Amino acid sequence: MARDLLDKVLVREVDGRVMWGRLVEVEAYLGPDDLAAHSRGGRRTARTEVMYGAPGHAYVYFTYGMHWCLNFVTREAGVPQAVLVRALEPGPEVGRCSGPGLVTRALGIDRALNGAPLAPPDLYVVDDGAKRRRVFVTRRIGVQGTGRWEKRLLRYAVDSPSLSRPLSRGPVRRKRVKTL
Question: What is the pTM of this model?
Fold first, then answer.
């Protein structure tokens, strides 16, 4: 699912204003076994409850006491997996989106959208038929201390100046993924 989201358009509508950005960087979080996931070990809290729900909903949480982060719930109910939106190429009149906190700030996303369906009119993803770019797979960012999970290649990105961190140019962390 994470790979398939790249180059799609994330749309946010607020009070008749339409804002958008092209998805260029995401990370997959694989549920209870993934020590970097909020649902690690089967944790089921008020914060993580949305991840245990139906796919196609927003999981929005506050981190570091200052940033909202947007995730898409991706698996069937009861399987708490999600994809974190790390970066967008911003559309017209949208601020910088080169990090999860910047994405939510630029699009006016906060806890009010936690659990919201990813469907018009509030928040949704559109395939506008844009040409698919080469996809790179690297380690996730900011998941130190999670054992083998910090080395897993679960960050998906296209080469873009809007990434939260540049792609590694070393052969170990850069992997080409066949696109459709």
Answer: 0.90
